[in-house]
Amino acid sequence: MSHTRMSDADFDQLLTAHHRAVHAYLAKRTFGDRQLAEDLTQETFVRALNHPEILTSGQATPLPWLYRVARNLLIDHLRARGSRPAEVGTPDLAAVAGEEALGNEIDRLLNSWSVRQAVASLSPAHRAVLTEIHFNHRSVPETAELLGVPPGTVKSRCFYAIRALRLALEEHGLAP
């Protein structure tokens, strides 16, 4: 299976723009293990090299994608490390990974950003129905009256809006 790769110029630009942020994100979560943070940062960008679509996905920045990959790589590292005997002289990162606070704020921000982007990608008609029914808690008849369309149209638009939203969220790495 052949993969397209991003151009060297695009990769250099991505690396220049986001290396520091990704490395800082990982350095905080590896509690000073500079080598591990650097290794995971490098692996994050290697993965990005093989996903040129992150630059053309219509998103304002590929940073949420990079953070998600970095976080997943750290989790994979911790799981793999948990299956081996403890290494001498290294902090117990596996114990730290179990803490509720690990990355919760960034995860919340990334998820919020992804949901906003997914909702923004809907057509105006679908977005209006979804907003009225699910965010403003209006009934189908109330939404129909407000939007000036029949109730059947509201139901249909809501169905298709949710389906489109589910696909958009999956593209952002959030499986509903």
From TrEMBL:
Gene3D superfamilies: 1.10.1740.10, Winged helix-like DNA-binding domain superfamily/Winged helix DNA-binding domain. InterPro entries: RNA_pol_sigma-70-like, RNA_pol_sigma-70_dom, RNA_pol_sigma70_ECF_CS, RNA_pol_sigma70_r2, RNA_pol_sigma70_r4_t2, RNA_pol_sigma_r2, RNA_pol_sigma_r3/r4-like, WH-like_DNA-bd_sf. The keyword Cell wall biogenesis/degradation does not apply. The keyword Transcription applies. Residues 14-82 form the RNA polymerase sigma-70 region domain. Transmembrane segments: none annotated. Keywords: DNA-binding, Sigma factor, Transcription, Transcription regulation. Residues 114-161 form the RNA polymerase sigma factor 70 region 4 type domain. It comes from the Bacteria. PANTHER family: ECF RNA POLYMERASE SIGMA FACTOR SIGL, RNA POLYMERASE ECF-TYPE SIGMA FACTO. Belongs to the sigma-70 factor family. ECF subfamily. This is RNA polymerase sigma factor.
